[in-house]
Amino acid sequence: MRPKLVLFGDSITEGSFMEGGWGAALANQFSRTADVVLRGYSGYNTRWARLVVERAMDGVCVGGASPKAVTVFFGANDACLPDRGGASQHVPILEYQDNLRSICSFLKEQWPTTIIILITPPPIDEDGRLKNPYGNDNSGLPERTNEFAGAYAKACIALAKESDLPVIDIWSKMQSFPGWEKSFLSDGLHFTALGNRILFEEVVLKLKEKGISLETIPIDLPLFSDIDTNDPHKSLGK
Amino acid sequence: MRPKLVLFGDSITEGSFMEGGWGAALANQFSRTADVVLRGYSGYNTRWARLVVERAMDGVCVGGASPKAVTVFFGANDACLPDRGGASQHVPILEYQDNLRSICSFLKEQWPTTIIILITPPPIDEDGRLKNPYGNDNSGLPERTNEFAGAYAKACIALAKESDLPVIDIWSKMQSFPGWEKSFLSDGLHFTALGNRILFEEVVLKLKEKGISLETIPIDLPLFSDIDTNDPHKSLGK
């Protein structure tokens, strides 16, 4: 049975199989070795994710099996400012951290051997957000700021440290490239194909650090080049 | 537990999560409702697929569950000419048909309620194949021809009729568009993003004809817009 890689998150996860998406790229990377399972819930914050994690994971693995890894990628919605157009999605930072803790504890309890990878919220391009007005706010101010998202990113990293979990700091990673605002973010928040590529590479790297790679997961059936075409039963017989 | 859509085939299936791929587009289409499971085996013909189908499907569904649908998309390799560079992959047409019959019987027996969708081999752009020499053949002739692939497509359609299975005639469909050779095929055989789009649309249409669509598969958790954000327990409580 093929191992599973589960992607749990908000719209940046739900949309990860769009053209150029990081989820699709992962599925392509592991096309012969692992199943990528999509559990993305657009608009969700950690308060809601915490309420549904058990049902979201229901049936992902059965018969006592565990996924190889689960990415937990929330916070972009929690980090909506409490007094702007995204207020209904806002979650205070300490609650965000506690919700993440609860989600990871649930996963750890259910699947003790599974690698849980936290991903921080992405950086915010406020100019991009202003061009994509959100909610019913006519203040002319963005509903998210990069600074506020950064505080949630730090809280996510602190929780990862506390819980001894691997974390991808996509907030910092993206900002280490000049021009990140437009090259990685399509609307100041969601990812362009290039932004998706950055996250894909970070996830592949983190999985590899944790022992999950094309080198370590056995292929389920022989490559064409390894089949004895004169005697396929020899290569492919049970 | 989310329903599953399984993609079983050769390289055009294995590569279906590359950028613009038809598998990724399906996973995106059903991102909140169904899991797309990739079982693509580059280079495989039906002779080898028949030998491995049981193992390829092992663990895809457990505990008595069945996939909603399985696409069976082979023949591009069977239809290599027997005396050219792809000879080791060639399978005679009657054996191709018999292998397909065996694969579908296995699936039907294991999962009587699953919709099995046959897909014919794609058309061949011989000029494209000549520009991508294959195997150890220096004849200057392509290892596949469109006419030969068409015979396999007809055999596939005949089997679908005999077995009362839905079939996507991608060989004919693509050729109904002018300029199909270059716009749908990147190397005379594999699909461009536009070619992937055509197949994606055909699969969505065929699934819909068989009662599988966004309208008929229930969403597992509420959309953000349906959550009472003042009382999330009401919308999201168990």
TrEMBL record, chains A, B:
It holds the Pfam family Lipase_GDSL. GO terms for molecular function: hydrolase activity, acting on ester bonds. Keywords: Hydrolase. InterPro entries: GDSL, Iah1-like, SGNH_hydro_sf. It comes from the Eukaryota. Belongs to the 'GDSL' lipolytic enzyme family. This is SGNH hydrolase-type esterase domain-containing protein. It comes from Dioscorea zingiberensis.
